[in-house]
Amino acid sequence: MRIKGEDVLLPTTMVGSYPRPNWLRGKVFGEFDEPDYIDYGTKEAFEDAVRLCVDDQIRAGFDVVCDGQQYFESETTHEYGQVFHFWGHRLAGFKRWGEPIAIELYKKFHAPMVVGDIEWVRPIFAPILEATRAAAGDRPVKLAMQGPLFLAFAVTDRYYGDPKSLAMAIARAFNREFKDLTARGVDWIQIHEPLTYYGERRAGTST
Question: Where do the Cobalamin-independent methionine synthase MetE C-terminal/archaeal domain residues begin and end (predicted)?
Fold first, then answer.
């Protein structure tokens, strides 16, 4: 793989979330009809956390750096459940709590509920990319996120009525977001689709 004009045989990067600093707590971003950040102080704290995360990766010698998903609320078990709501609260067509998530490992968490057409309304990861790019300098930047199939399994559907239509609607919204990130200069997008690992199946689908 070519990175900064050089061939790198086995480029190194980080997968998944990085621990948050103790001074970054709770929600960072607004929902689809709210401002990007909930307030200016939170914006500054988030950008500082991303800067520290990226600096650790640079000092470790990683070839591709990422944001470490510093926006996830994971200080408590309850807040960890917000991982499944990050997309749902930022796309049109969702409302909050549905039934427990169908994936066995996560049944203690309640899924977001689909109640209308799922639509991409506005950029979601743009402020995350902006903060990561500012900290990374000229190094390649990667953003990691849940994939559309995983989200289709982790929501309560009260609108589409079949898994394929639901998954395709989610995929179309994801496609809009990926195109927006590409236009903004992201180098890589890492998609998490762990259903094969979980061994989960839903009627009418296979993994």
Answer: 10-196
Query: Distance from CA of residue 114 to its chain's centroid?
Result: 18
- Neighbour tally for 14: CB within 10 Å: 21
Q: Name 7's bridge partners.
A: 2
d(CA 1, CA 11): 7
> Strand 141-146 to strand 110-119: parallel, antiparallel, or no bridges (unpaired)?
unpaired
CA-to-CA dists, residue 46 to 32, 68, 93, angstroms = 19, 11, 28
What separation in angstroms does the CA of 87 have from each of 1, 152, 191, 206? 31, 11, 13, 23
141-146 vs 92-100, strand pairing mode = unpaired
The fold of 23-192 is TIM Barrel (3.20.20)
Q: Exposed, middle or buried, 112 (CB in 10 Å: 0-12/13-18/19+)? A: buried
Q: What is the pTM of this model?
A: 0.85
Question: CA angle, corner 141, sides to 138 and 143, nearest 5?
Answer: 165
* Entry field: residues in the chain: 207
- Rounded Cα distance, 144 and 85, in Å: 15
Domains in the chain: boundaries: 23-192
pLDDT in tens, 139-169: 999 999 888 888 888 888 999 999 889 999 9
Q: How far apart are CA 139 and CA 3, in angstroms?
A: 8
